[in-house]
């Protein structure tokens, strides 16, 4: 389970806190990564050198010695745009082993800066492939780098773990979402509630949180037989 310490220092000295039930609402001067500034949101086109490197990495991945030698001699010389594009391509192909290799390389680059979208893409890839241990590691890294997710990103990541049949890990991330300094929004809750249909007890818990924070909003529950049908197939 993704048990991590809660980073409370992210609330600035000028931040204010308002409590609604068990949910602390924070108003802070800090913010999550800006899409307009993130290299991870730009279109990623692999150049000729990147294509060659990607092909060779796939060929050598079963040979650790030659793979590490090639990484030192060739991958380290890639342009930033090619390195970012190759990582994105491996994520798209669900090449988890190579994705983690490039993840380590990127974080050592001189131009690297902690980024919400970088970590979002990593966690979505690992959730999709049900790679819990790697997800734990990435989560520890983002916490150490004090990366702050916005509420929509939290909702998408929780939903990704739910859709992959990893409810325990999804709920751990949900707990992090509850303690975030970002003000809660209704849409991420609705995204999660839909993903929680196969897990009625967990859904009821999140639903209660939602109604506590947004008492004037309505949740349309699916028919009871839909819950029962999911339970019969688990």
Automatic annotation (TrEMBL):
Protein name: Pentatricopeptide repeat-containing protein
PPR repeat windows: 150-184
Top-level taxonomic group: Eukaryota
Organism from which the protein derives: Clitoria ternatea (Butterfly pea)
This protein's UniProt keywords: Repeat
InterPro entries: PPR_rpt, THA8L-like, TPR-like_helical_dom_sf
PROSITE patterns, A to Z: PPR
